[in-house]
Amino acid sequence: MDDTSAADKLCNASARGDLLEVVLLLQNGVDVNGLNKYNRTALQVVKLANSTLIEALLVQGADPNLRDPACGLTVMHDAAREGFVDSVRVLLDHEADANLADGKGNLPLHLAAREGYLEVVQLLIGHTENPMRLNSQGHTARQVAEVNMRVDIVEYLDSYLNSRE
Prior knowledge:
With 165 residues, the protein is an all-alpha fold. The chain has nine helices and no strands.
């Protein structure tokens, strides 16, 4: 007997990147924002490299701004930290908020800058209300990039910020 809940099945398919199974489950009425046994939704566990699957979940009403119960991250934080620019773009197109801070005060911009994903930084900067916002350690995204020796990002952020003055 299969004791796996419908939400667990949806989350498992989402984590595997199985678009066909996700679509079939959603067509059969599984709640796109249903919680699995770990208290997470399909979007929160999605295979981040699969922007098509992310979009399918968002079109069906997945909430892109739910926070991970353990650390306060949104899927936008995860995608930015991992450098999945197409996924970040899809999230932004579906009203994901680039201005939500995680439990350490980091915006997705901070995480992309820290990890050195210039294209993600370039995409997020236009959606970030205050690119000079400090995280809990008192650092801007530019300072985070500098500490992590992300020279290209420091140069880009300097240019961007100087052009706004």
